[in-house]
From TrEMBL:
Organism per entry: Streptomyces omiyaensis
Entry's family note: Belongs to the enoyl-CoA hydratase/isomerase family.
Name of the protein described by the UniProt record: Enoyl-CoA hydratase/isomerase family protein
Coiled coil: none
Length: 261
C-alpha cells in the first residue's frame, strides 16, 4: 500500500493510469491526507501528456470507497455560520481540479456516501456484479447534500431520492444500477478494473484534443445546474445536521440489516 493511501499505476504504452484508493482494511475510507493527495494527483495529471485516460477504483474487493474516515472527520473544525461548511471531500474529484481527461470508475463492493464525490465526477461507471450503492447520511442524522447533488446528475430523480432518504436500510445492486443508467457495464465480480482499463485504452487511442473537447462539452451541458445546486449545499448541511456527538451515538447503534434491490 502506498503510504498516502493512494496508489497509481501508469501504462505509458496505452496512455492509461489506474488510481487506486488503497486502504482496504478501512474499506478505502478517505483520510484528510488522501483528500489532499487526490486533489494534487488530478491536478498533476493535467501536465502528463502521455496519460490520456484514467481509471479510479478501490483496493481489496470489499469496497470502492465508504466516504470519509470517521476518525478524521471529527478533526475538521467548522465555522459558526449556518451558511458555510468546510467539507474536506469537496475537491477530491477530477472536475473540481480542472482535469478534463476522461475518468472511468471501476466499482467492486460497497460505494457509499462520500464515494459519490468521485463517482459523480467520473465520465461513466463499470461495476462488478456484487457492487452495491447506498447513502447512509440520513440514518445518522446528516444531510446528504453534496453527495445527492453529484449523483442526481446521473440517476433518475426518484432513484436518487429513494437512495438518499432510505439511508443505510437499502442498497442498490449493480444490476439495478445498470437498469437505471448509473452503471454502463456490469462484469463478473472482480472484473470491473479490467473492463474499465479496456474502455480507457480505446479512448486513450483517440486524438487527445477531440477526447478532451468532448468531455468538456458533456460537462458544459449540465454545469450551470450542478454549480448552482452545489452552492446551496453548505448551509443545507449546517442547518440540517445533528450535532457530532448525536451522529456518533446513532452510528454506534447502527443495525447490520439492510435490503438490496
Amino acid at each position: 500500500m502506498n503510504a498516502s493511501g493512494i496508489s497509481v499505476e501508469r501504462d505509458r504504452e496505452t496512455g492509461v493510469a489506474v488510481v487506486t484508493l488503497d486502504r482496504p482494511e478501512r474499506l478505502n475510507a478517505i483520510t484528510l491526507a488522501m483528500a489532499a493527495g487526490l486533489g494534487a494527483l488530478w491536478r498533476g495529471f493535467r501536465y502528463e501528456d502521455d496519460i490520456r485516460a484514467i481509471v479510479v477504483t478501490g483496493a481489496g474487493g470489499r469496497a470502492f470507497c465508504t466516504g470519509i474516515d470517521r476518525d478524521d472527520a471529527g478533526r475538521v473544525p467548522q465555522p459558526s455560520s449556518p451558511y458555510t461548511v468546510d467539507d474536506p471531500l469537496v475537491a477530491i474529484g477530477p472536475k473540481a481540479n480542472d482535469l478534463w481527461k476522461p475518468v472511468i470508475a471501476a466499482v467492486e463492493g460497497m460505494a457509499c456516501g462520500g464515494a459519490f464525490y468521485l463517482l459523480g465526477e467520473a465520465e461513466f461507471l463499470v461495476a462488478g456484479e456484487t457492487a452495491v450503492f447506498f447513502d447512509p447520511h440520513t440514518t445518522y442524522g446528516m444531510v446528504s447534500a453534496f453527495e445527492t447533488i453529484h449523483m442526481a446528475q446521473r440517476m433518475p430523480f426518484g432513484e436518487i431520492a429513494r437512495m438518499a432518504l432510505m439511508g443505510s436500510a437499502e442498497r442498490i445492486s449493480a444490476r439495478r444500477a445498470h437498469e437505471i443508467g448509473l452503471v454502463s457495464e456490469v462484469t463478473e465480480a472482480g472484473g470491473a478494473v479490467a473492463a474499465a482499463r479496456e474502455a480507457a485504452a480505446v479512448i486513450a487511442a483517440c486524438p487527445t484534443g477531440a477526447v478532451q473537447g468532448t468531455v468538456r462539452a458533456l460537462w458544459t451541458a449540465k454545469e450551470a445546474v450542478r454549480s448552482q445546486a452545489l452552492a446551496q449545499a453548505p448551509h443545507l448541511v449546517t442547518l440540517g445536521n445533528l450535532p457530532a456527538d448525536r451522529q456518533a451515538e446513532l452510528f454506534a447503534r447502527r443495525r447490520a440489516g439492510h435490503r438490496t434491490r
